[in-house]
């Protein structure tokens, strides 16, 4: 029986509050740009390609560098990497705010992605090191999950508020108070942790970078432009490089990721379920945003405020999850969370052109609360299973799965919705419109609304109505698919994990890892890495 872990004191909880600051920074900047695009377009006049890179480059770089940055943090110290990343993120935010050209803004967003990639694995890795007691760690991860959800929801709200009074660059300058607080407080309240003897495997780092980036890019290209030789080739190249990365982890004496962890009870399923969380959450969010702004014609601020019920529900749900896991099996909590999130997707399929605000709020709350229930447990599972010496790299693996899930959600659910939208609109579009207008209108709801502006009445109103009806029709197949994925994930959790009574800890990992099929120098080396220690310094 493993010894009882020492409980964290008051300083650790203050340190946790400090670590939520970078979580808010990174998650806010994923969504903060969307509502500012019209102002940026009017000022900088980017091409359509440049506009897409402004939006996407942040997520691309973030996803590609997560595993590498997690390994660097384990080696040089997680707090040190956190501070370096904070400085870079703050400098990139200033550069973005005062960008005078589309190229400068794209570069600034890329640098923000580099900074964000250093922040996210550092926060979870430090939480794993600061909270060794399972119950305390579970509560800390629930708070971390709340911070992620709240940041994503607050991004549009801050964006809408600032754009009412200031120029578009203010949405980036709002990061600076968080950056300053983090730089002042982290050295005082966040202890330094690094893994003794950790080495950065540069070839593995390069393979992880070149594997994740083309897969994420290819998935998003599929969603935006449909299947093409470039997008399919990019995904194929990424998968091949990913296989090479995994093979290197098996055979190398100093792997970045100890694949023996996937033998641990529930570790692999937890990674998969974390991907499902973001697959459905991002797809749901995209459809909800378009519905509020382009069907109900809400302003950005109004749309953001109507979704604020979700982060409020998340704030309440987080502590409840920590309480539930202590009293029922984790698989049941995960399954309940997925079922609640699925109910939110089902509610979305009932929306019409009429403004049904209670249904909208209920759907958003169910999705947010269900996701945070499942995400808190699987995140705790992954972080708690990993040895403390590898927690930075494993946290990065967790977040890479999140980014891949988000990209797949956009691609799969977006493609389903786009196909139904185009087919439905083709059957109801007003006759006599120019062919160029028809082609543009059938691509997306936004394209249809933009095309309608150039038309006289009554054709304008007819096209807008037909496009909105087609979009509402596209909600059902896309969100029924999302709900089906969530229900399947709930069943998967019950079947695969129902026998486990509590979230595992690395302290008892030796009892939970199946013996490897073969032994040898590589296996011995992997076991040595897995058994490494984390050395706190102050």
Can you walk me through this structure?
The chain starts with 9 loop residues before the first helix and ends with a strand. α6 (134-165) packs antiparallel against α13, α9 runs antiparallel to α10 (229-251) and α16 (391-428) packs antiparallel against α19 (459-497). By secondary structure, the chain is mainly α. It has 21 helices and 2 strands. The protein has helices spanning 10-31, 37-44, 48-76, 78-97, 102-130, 134-165, 170-173, 175-189, 202-225, 229-251, 267-295, 300-306, 309-325, 330-348, 357-385, 391-428, 435-441, 445-453, 459-497, 509-512, 521-530, and strands at 192-195, 534-537. The protein is globular, with a radius of gyration of 23 Å.
Structure, briefly:
The chain is mostly helical and 538 residues long. It has helices at 10-31, 37-44, 48-76, 78-97, 102-130, 134-165, 170-173, 175-189, 202-225, 229-251, 267-295, 300-306, 309-325, 330-348, 357-385, 391-428, 435-441, 445-453, 459-497, 509-512, 521-530, and strands at residues 192-195, 534-537.
Write the layout of secondary structure elements.
Layout: H1 10-31, H2 37-44, H3 48-76, H4 78-97, H5 102-130, H6 134-165, H7 170-173, H8 175-189, E1 192-195, H9 202-225, H10 229-251, H11 267-295, H12 300-306, H13 309-325, H14 330-348, H15 357-385, H16 391-428, H17 435-441, H18 445-453, H19 459-497, H20 509-512, H21 521-530, E2 534-537
Antiparallel strand pairs: 1-2
Helix pairs in contact: 1-5, 1-6, 1-8, 3-4, 3-5, 3-9, 3-16, 4-5, 4-8, 5-6, 5-16, 6-12, 6-13, 6-15, 9-10, 9-16, 11-15, 11-16, 11-19, 13-15, 14-15, 14-19, 16-19, 17-18, 18-19
């Amino acid at each position: 029986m493993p010894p009882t872990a020492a409980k964290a004191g008051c300083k650790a909880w203050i340190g946790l509050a400090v670590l939520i600051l970078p979580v808010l920074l990174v998650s806010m900047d994923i969504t903060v740009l969307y509502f500012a695009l019209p102002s940026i377009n009017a000022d900088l006049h980017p091409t359509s390609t440049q506009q897409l890179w402004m939006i996407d480059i942040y997520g691309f770089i973030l996803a590609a560098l997560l595993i590498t940055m997690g390994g660097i943090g384990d080696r040089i110290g997680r707090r040190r990497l956190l501070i370096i990343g904070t400085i870079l993120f703050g400098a990139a935010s200033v550069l973005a705010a005062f960008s005078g050209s589309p190229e400068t803004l794209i570069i600034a967003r890329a640098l923000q992605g580099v900074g964000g990639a250093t922040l996210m694995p550092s926060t979870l890795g430090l939480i794993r090191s600061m909270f060794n007691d399972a119950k305390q760690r579970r509560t800390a991860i629930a708070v971390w999950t709340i911070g992620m959800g709240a940041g994503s929801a607050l991004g549009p709200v801050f964006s809408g508020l600032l754009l009412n009074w200031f120029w578009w660059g203010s949405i980036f300058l709002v990061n600076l108070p968080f950056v300053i607080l983090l730089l002042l407080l982290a050295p005082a309240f966040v202890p330094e942790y690094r893994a003794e003897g950790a080495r950065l495997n540069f070839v593995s780092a390069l393979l992880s970078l070149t594997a994740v980036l083309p897969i994420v890019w290819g998935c998003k290209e599929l969603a935006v432009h449909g299947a093409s030789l470039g997008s399919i080739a990019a995904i194929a190249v990424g998968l091949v490089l990913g296989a090479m990365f995994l093979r290197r982890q098996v055979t190398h004496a100093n792997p970045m990721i100890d694949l023996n962890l996937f033998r641990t009870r529930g570790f692999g399923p937890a990674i998969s379920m974390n991907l499902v969380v973001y697959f459905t959450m991002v797809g749901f969010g995209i459809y909800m945003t378009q519905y509020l702004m382009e069907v109900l014609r809400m302003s950005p601020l109004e749309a953001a405020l109507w979704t604020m019920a979700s982060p409020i529900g998340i704030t309440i749900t987080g502590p409840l999850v920590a309480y539930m896991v202590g009293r029922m099996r984790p698989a049941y909590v995960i399954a309940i969370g997925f079922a609640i999130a699925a109910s939110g997707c089902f509610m979305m399929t009932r929306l019409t052109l009429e403004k049904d605000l209670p249904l909208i709020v209920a759907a958003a709350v169910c999705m947010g609360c269900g996701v945070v229930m499942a995400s808190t447990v699987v995140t705790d599972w992954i972080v708690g299973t990993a040895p403390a010496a590898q927690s930075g790299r494993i946290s990065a693996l967790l977040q890479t799965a999140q980014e891949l899930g988000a990209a797949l959600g956009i691609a799969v659910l977006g493609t389903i919705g786009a196909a139904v939208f185009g087919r439905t609109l083709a059957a109801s579009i007003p006759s006599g419109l120019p062919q160029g207008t028809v082609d543009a209108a059938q691509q997306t709801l936004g394209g249809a609304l933009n095309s309608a502006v150039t038309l006289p009445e009554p054709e304008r109103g007819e096209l807008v109505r037909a496009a909105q009806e087609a979009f509402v029709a596209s909600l059902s197949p896309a969100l029924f698919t999302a709900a089906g994925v969530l229900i399947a994930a709930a069943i998967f959790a019950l079947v695969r994990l129902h026998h486990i009574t509590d979230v595992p800890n690395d302290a008892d990992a030796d009892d939970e890892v199946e013996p490897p099929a073969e032994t040898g120098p590589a296996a011995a080396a992997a076991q040595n890495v897995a058994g490494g220690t984390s050395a706190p310094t102050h």
